[in-house]
Every structure is written in structure tokens, then in C-alpha cells.
Amino acid sequence: MGTGGRAAFLQDLHKKYSYIRKTRPDGNCFYRAFGFSHLEALLDDSKELQRFKAVSAKSKEDLVSQGFTEFTIEDFHNTFMDLIEQVEKQTSVADLLASFNDQSTSDYLVVYLRLLTSGYLQRESKFFEHFIEGGRTVKEFCQQEVEPMCKESDHIHIIALAQALSVSIQGMLVVSPVCVSLLCCCPPGCSVSG
């Protein structure tokens, strides 16, 4: 596509969205983008923040009851909860962004979101097994494609995380002006803004 087509594409995006935030394309970009975007939105929604905090606090127990080792997930969960509490204290967007730009904080958040995704996929394995290719079980898929860092996310990951946290997720993957993928996942009781 020539520069004229690219310019038209960018203008079209500008009409639909007030701003675009790029993410590092490292295989963890979905989780990092979701984490930042959702926590940023919670700065202006105290009711949803309290609901999200309660679900997130309980999520560690849910994972442990599924067989995830408490000792293994504890630090990741604590970092996740620390970020939520930072939002609860009305941190600035700049400070939230600084937390996400801190490699260890960002990586711990990504790991925990991956664990939540894996836990939900395994808990609802009867539903998701029909979407797993290659003759793998849901557990094998999670061990190979969800839990490891730097693995790309697909629709199945996004749907599972949205369901696990009872949040709406609307995402756009822009590889090039001719390769755009839009996904909107809205669990029951949620609404999508955007």
C-alpha cells in the first residue's frame, strides 16, 4: 500500500478513536495492553474498581483450588493487587504508566493475567476443547500457548480472560493497513464502550 493509502487508513483510525497507544510487540502485548487500559479506565469508575478488586482478590483462591501452587503464584498475585490498590489511591496516569514501564512489575502482571487465562480455560475445558487444534488437551494448550511468556494471544485467550474477570474487552490488532483484526468480547452483564 502506498503512502496515500496509509494516510487514509490513519485518518480513518483517527475518526474512530481519540488516541492510539502502541505496545511492544513481544508476545505479551495483549496482556500488557489490557492490563494498562483496564486499570486506566478504573481510575474514573470507583464502582467497577471495587467489583474488579473483589474478583481479582478471589482469583488467587480459585487458581489454588484448581491445583496451581500458592507459593508459585503468590508474588504475581500480590503485584497485580498492588497495581489495583495504586489505582484505588487515585494514582496519576503517568505513575500508572511508569509502573507498566517497569520491567519486573509489567512482567509479573503479564504472568498473573496469563495464569488467570489458563485457569479459566481449564475450568471451562469442556467448552474450549473444541477450539484447540493439534490434538492437544486444554491443559497441554495452556502449558504450551498460554502460560509461557512471549507467546502471542489469540481470540481464545481474550475470551477466556474477559470471562475470568467479567470484563468487556475490545481490541484491535493492526499489522498493516490491509491487515486489521477487531475483536469484541462482552461477557453477560458487561457493556462495551469505545
UniProtKB/TrEMBL annotation:
PROSITE patterns: OTU (PS50802). SUPFAM superfamilies: Cysteine proteinases. It is an enzyme of class 3 (hydrolase). It catalyses: Thiol-dependent hydrolysis of ester, thioester, amide, peptide and isopeptide bonds formed by the C-terminal Gly of ubiquitin (a 76-residue protein attached to proteins as an intracellular targeting signal). The keyword Hydrolase applies. Pfam families: Peptidase_C65. Residues 18-194 form the OTU domain. GO terms for biological process: negative regulation of double-strand break repair; protein K48-linked deubiquitination; proteolysis. One of its GO terms (molecular function) is cysteine-type deubiquitinase activity. Keywords: Hydrolase, Protease, Thiol protease, Ubl conjugation pathway. Its EC number is 3.4.19.12. One of its GO terms (cellular component) is nucleus. Belongs to the peptidase C65 family. This is ubiquitinyl hydrolase 1.
